[in-house]
Amino acid sequence: MLLVFYGKGKGKTSAAVGTALRALGRGWRVAIVQFMKSWDSGERTLMRRLSSRGMPLEGKLIWMNFGTKEFVNPNDLGNYAASVNMAFSYGFILFELPKILSTFKPKLLVLDELGVAVHLGILDEYTAVNFLQLFKGSMERHAIVTGRYVPSTIKSEADLLTRLDEIKHYFKNVKQAIEGLDL
Fold first, then answer.
1. pTM of the predicted model, to two decimals?
2. Taking the domains of the chain in order of start, what are their residue ranges?
3. The three-state (H, E, C) secondary structure of the chain, written as one string
């Protein structure tokens, strides 16, 4: 199945990683790919800690980050951060991901922020949609796409489409991400 979590509300990545945890609990092989993110999130740190404490995640989980710490400005897609993110995204989708699918064979693939990468033009829409059609309606392998902005072509392919809307957010007052809630 192809699941899409999108919208301006908080919780898209958390929903995707929560689903990945559920899948790992059922013994599935899971690959998590985060586009345009290079930092260690709390979720990734937890997975690393569980692995180091003897939890049987080896051979069940691959987690990769492709991005820079610099923000990708949608008004300047010719800058360093956008260029590096573009190279990572294309290289991964075209060359590495097919190898992972054929050798690791994840039953669940999380493509975090893929929607934003496509929206910004860092990865072209045709390549993304063509790839995601491998998952649509499948009972054997599943994919989750997240992103604030997800193109309608990807949303129309989804078997599950969930929009998260922001009603109220503490960030407007605090002006920074809070470790443990946001990172």
1. 0.86
2. 2-174
3. CEEEEECCCCCHHHHHHHHHHHHHHCCCCEEEEEECCCCCCHHHHHHHHHHHCCCCCCCCEEEEEECCCCCCCCCCCCCHHHHHHHHHHHHHHHHHHHHHHHHCCCCEEEEECHHHHHHCCCCCHHHHHHHHCCCCCCCCCEEEEEECCCCHHHHHHCCEEEECCCCCCCHHHHCCCCCCCCC
